[in-house]
Design a protein that fits this description.
By secondary structure, this protein is an all-alpha fold. It is about 75% helix and about 0% strand. It has six helices and no strands. Keywords: Membrane, Transmembrane, Transmembrane helix.
Length: about 160
């Protein structure tokens, strides 16, 4: 799923939980649960070059920020409480770690290799959920429609 969907799910989760720690943990788990659902970008984005991944990430981050601005404008600006922010961080953290994992492959220094080894088991788990747990691939266009439907549903809940 795109970060926009994961982060909006974090907003929903944070609105129902009592403290930031629980919100972060449930947000983190929600990321992995949602990534099990075939959503069309599992293979397509994985084949991009590092520069292509960077552009995809920039676009995803821009849409995420736009989504947050629209939520604050149309829903309520005080939707972003510390609990909600913790849930959002948990919900997007696995994709940020995936980016660090991918970038650390390109760096040639001791710190990058250690970081890569540290993140590697989590990234393998993340990849397994994305691609292997339900080895069913849907077209990118259908996945995009599915993610828009999820996003609209979460907007209704918020």
């Amino acid at each position: 799923m795109f970060l926009t969907v994961h982060s909006t799910l974090g907003v929903v989760i944070g609105g129902y939980l009592p403290n930031p720690f629980t919100a972060f943990l449930v947000g983190l788990i929600s990321h992995y649960v949602f990534d099990i659902i075939p959503h069309g970008d599992e293979v397509k984005l994985g084949k991009l070059s590092l520069a292509g991944m960077a552009w995809a990430a920039i676009i995803d981050q821009a849409i995420l920020l736009l989504n947050f601005m629209l939520l604050a404008y149309f829903k309520t600006a005080d939707v972003f409480t510390p609990i909600v922010i913790a849930a959002v961080i948990g919900a997007i953290l696995p994709d940020w770690l995936m980016a660090i994992h991918r970038l650390s492959e390109e760096w040639d220094n001791r710190f990058a290799r250690a970081l890569h080894r540290l993140i590697d088991p989590l990234q393998n788990f993340h990849y397994y959920l994305h691609v292997n747990l339900l080895p069913y691939e849907i077209p990118f266009s259908l996945g995009l429609i599915l993610q828009i439907i999820f996003l609209a549903g979460m907007w209704i809940v918020i």
